[in-house]
Amino acid sequence: MKKFIIDMHTHSKYSxxxxxxxxxxxxxxxxxxxxxxxxxxHFNYDYDFSLMTKEEQEYFRDANPEEYFHGARxxxxxxxxxxxxxxxxxxxxxxxxxxxGRYAMIYEKxxxxxxxxxxxxxxxxxxxxxxFTGTKEEVYKAYLRLIRESxxxxxxxxxxxxxxxxxxxxxxxxxxxxxxxxxxxxxxILNAIIQKNKILEINTANxxxxxxxxxxxxxxxxxxxxxxxxxxxxxxxxFQERIADKWGEVVEKLKEIGFxxxxxxxxxxxxxxEI
Length: 275
Description:
Blueprint (H helix, E strand, L loop, with lengths): L4 E3 L14 H11 L1 E10 L10 H6 L5 H14 L5 E9 L4 H14 L4 E4 L2 E2 L2 E2 L9 H15 L8 E2 L18 H17 L3 E5 L13 H9 L5 E4 L12 H11 L3 E6 L2 E6 L1
């Protein structure tokens, strides 16, 4: 099989924090030689807007599903035979049953080609605006417990998004996750991903962290050692210049670990793409 560039985690102006239109993002992806391009606009029903300032409420507005899926499907048709465009969604996990029900409704009505299930915050707020209390061990273990709970979400999803997201914003001098500190919790998560036949994401939006990906490479190596083989690459690009960021670096590291393919989810099918 021909070796394609793949990027399954991107956002456009349909999301609150996207900088370019989806048409502009797709045009750039084609120029870069992307073979599988996944757009995964934000659905942040986990956020409690009553806890936000007016500025935060405006910033964190939800994607309009009718506009997004209608527009994206038309562009998907336009690129048929040119580039594999996957119209997906990123759901911000919450333990709240009403929130989970809203995600299930989005799935039933619009049938995204794939879904990224991500933990972006707690108690109704994104970690970027969260008031952290407790030690690093307490905060990170609570976060890892939330990720483990997210794996049992009652709606369909394919990819487990950017494990380690909290470290982008945590106030600790040493923000890194390490197996030596959280090995038991991380193993439980990785084993569940494998058992549930989900896909672990390598996300290159590291926001200045020492490790250049989320999760850290030692966690990816542990996933492989436990038998995990389903890996997704996502730049988490919110503007054209970041599409496929660190792609070559990620592929070489994955090969070094032992991976031979990436997994592209599309309408219930898991497609193996050689790297």
